[in-house]
Design brief:
Blueprint: H1 9-26, E1 30-32, E2 41-44, E3 52-60, E4 72-74, H2 75-88, E5 91-97, E6 102-106, H3 107-113, E7 116-121, E8 132-137, E9 144-147
Parallel strand pairs: 3-5
Antiparallel strand pairs: 1-2, 2-3, 4-8, 5-6, 6-9, 7-8
Length: 157
């Protein structure tokens, strides 16, 4: 028996709103991937060919980036993004939408810059024994800020 999924309809709706915003900002179309895919979206080439140019994981964090030292993400997720990006020659991106900003990092650049791995994750309100795992701490220097004066209405319900 597999692990219960904790992603709610609201979570996917918020991710879709963020992806729609990214599509406008990057002048491209993002497509949602199937539920158990290792990343959330693919991005099309701007030439209308339908060619995938990037794979994207979207993380909505209900905190201010300014209030934390380093964001983090599952080491497994980083490895899957890296593997797919390298295998197919596309950019692998992690997009974070915080309360106070939206930013992204390129996984290849992240791994080249040197990362710190810690055992962590959801440690306060764990839902099951798999809520803690190896996590990649993302240095702030690799984050590229896209929106600093964020208009939260577009992704906050």
């Amino acid at each position: 028996m597999g692990r219960k999924t904790f992603e709610s309809r609201k979570d996917t709706d918020v991710e879709t709103l963020i992806a729609d915003r990214l599509g406008v900002m990057w002048n491209t179309v993002l497509h949602k991937t199937p539920k158990f895919y290792p990343f959330d979206f693919t991005a099309d080439a701007r030439d209308g060919s339908g060619t995938v140019t990037a794979i994207i994981e979207v993380k909505r964090r209900y905190i201010n980036l300014s209030s934390i030292e380093e964001p983090f993400i599952s080491a497994h997720k980083v490895m899957e993004l890296s593997k797919y990006g390298e295998a197919f020659g596309v950019r692998a991106l992690i997009v974070f939408a915080f309360n106070d900003t939206m930013c992204y990092c390129d996984v290849a650049h992240l791994l080249e810059s040197g990362v710190r791995i810690v055992h962590g994750g959801r440690t306060v309100k764990t839902r099951d024994d798999q809520d803690t795992e190896p996590m990649v701490m993302i240095p702030r220097r690799v984050l590229i800020e896209m929106v600093s004066d964020i208009n939260k209405e577009w992704y906050e319900q």
